[in-house]
Amino acid sequence: METKQDVVQRDARKADLEVQTAALIPPVDITEDDAGITLTADLPGAQSDTLSIRVDGETLTLEAPLSLGEPQDLQAVYAEVRAGRYRRSFTLSRELDSTHIEASLKDGVLTLRLPKIEKAKPRRIEVRAA
Amino acid sequence: MYPSLQRFPGDLFADFDELQQQLERLLGPRGQSSSIRAVQRGTFPAVNVGVTPDAVEIYAFAPGIDLASLDVSVDKGLLTIAGRRKSTASEPADKVTVYARERVDGEFRRVVSLPEHADPDRVDASYGDGILKIKIQKREASRPRRIEVKDAR
Fold first, then answer.
1. Is 0.80 surpassed by the pTM of this model?
2. Hey, what's the torsion of the CAs at B87, B92, B97, B98, to 10 degrees?
3. Between 20 and 30 A from B58 (CA), which of B13, B31, B77, B121?
4. How far is B15 from chain A (nearest CA, A)?
5. Looking at the domain covering B43-88+104-140, what would its CATH class be?
6. Cis peptide before B45 (omega within 30 of 0)
């Protein structure tokens, strides 16, 4: 028979799991110019060795665990950020060259540059007078 | 002329937005008469506050700050964090299409009220990976101390 203590522990473990799988959706800025797309994402607490940038077919997925470096005995009093990781996906299009993505992470800001493949750069189309 | 519109009374998304705003007012930070300094969700920077036996630690999630503009001060039990975000690289205005601008830009200012036992003379602030960590030691007198119970027999 489950006692009240068991229920509290079960819920605590479930909450732990939820915190592990719940992810923050980082805000992004996306702009496009003739040469490609620039994506800037806010990932405070992300570090370059644990940041994962994956392209799977047409889907670009950014994922990073959040590390605060807090002491073991820290007890939360007030928390606006409760999830332990960032995750966001984007659907790319075929004219972007996903093999030449450039990424840099500084002060928690990730800047991604997705160049367009050569053939896809804009070309003027001559309009013939009929 | 618009028979298809009959199926969707008004703008559904506007109705949902209004519902969310009403819920935010009822259940949000100021809903149940909480701190007058409580902020709305999405305020920059987000802040987590924690305590250890001898200090109060504040973590502000502030990526891409212009460090020269950062001003952290403690006055009368209030911690103020103010500054400016590093402006995104200035691209030529023409021929650039903007698809998303979700990131907060410009100046920010946040005030957090500190518990009484935080000692404003012993504050340590550091910034790394976009997290501003502020550690304030507790006053000596307020650290937890064991009290020995003597046997009165």
1. no
2. 10
3. B31
4. 24
5. mainly beta
6. yes
Note whether B62 contacts A67, CB cutoff 8 Å: no
Tell whether the model's pLDDT for residue A88 goes beyond 70.
Answer: yes
Minimal Cβ distance to B99: which of A31, A34, A106:
A31
**Is CATH 2.60.40.790 correct for A4-69+76-117?**
yes
Question: What confidence category does residue B73 fall into, taking pLDDT thresholds of 50, 70 and 90?
Answer: very high
Is residue B31 less than 8 Å (CB to CB) from chain A?
Answer: no
- Looking at the complex, report in whole angstroms how far the Cα of residue B11 sits from the nearest Cα belonging to chain A: 26
Cβ of residue B5 closer than 8 Å to a chain A Cβ:
no
pLDDT digits (tens, 9 = 90+) for A112-128: 999 998 776 777 777 88
Q: Is B102 on the interface with A (CB under 8 A)?
A: yes
pLDDT of A19 reads: 47
Task: Supply the DSSP string of chain B, one letter for each residue.
Answer: --GGGGGS-S-HHHHHHHHHHHHHHHHSTTTTS--TT---TTPSSEEEEEEETTEEEEEEE--SB-GGG-EEEEETTEEEEEEEBPPPP---STT-EEEEE-S--SEEEEEEEPPTTEEEEEEEEEEETTEEEEEEEEPGGGS----------
